[in-house]
Amino acid sequence: MTHSTRRAMDIEQAVAQAPILRQLAERARASAERLALVRPLLPPGLQDQVLAGALEDGIWCLLVPHHAAAAKLRQLQPLILDALQQAGHPMERIRIKISKRG
Q1: DSSP line for 13-82
Q2: Which range of residues forms the domain containing residue 20?
Q3: Mean per-residue pLDDT over the chain, rounded
Q4: Which of 81, 91, 93, 102 suits 56 as a labelling partner, its CA being 20 to 30 A distant?
Q5: Alpha-carbon span 23 to 69, nearest angstrom
Q6: Share of the chain above pLDDT 90, in %
Q7: CATH code, domain with 71
Q8: In terms of Cα–Cα distance, which of 28, 100, 56, 31 is closest to 39?
Q9: 59-64 and 93-98: which strand pairing?
């Protein structure tokens, strides 16, 4: 077993044994799942720029690199919310945040 494999297993075990970490991991997975669901609805130039953010209490955060992307996502919010609803993931609202990625 390599060091990186052992380390990954240690992290997975820690997550499985800690309720708070397990809950955070589940939210991250659910957020990524929702992004995969709505990504095809985004214009091709935006599909790779949007990142899944926090998912909590019916509010989902999407991270974008600049204001133009945020403006376009705001226009698409009704379509995104409808797609989530149709897929059985009703959301109260979507927050859009500008995130400077290095």
Answers
A1: HHHHH-HHHHHHHHHHHHHHHHHHHHGGGS-HHHHTT-EEEEEETTEEEEEESSHHHHHHHHHHHHHHHH
A2: 3-98
A3: 88
A4: 102
A5: 30
A6: 67
A7: 3.30.300.180
A8: 31
A9: parallel
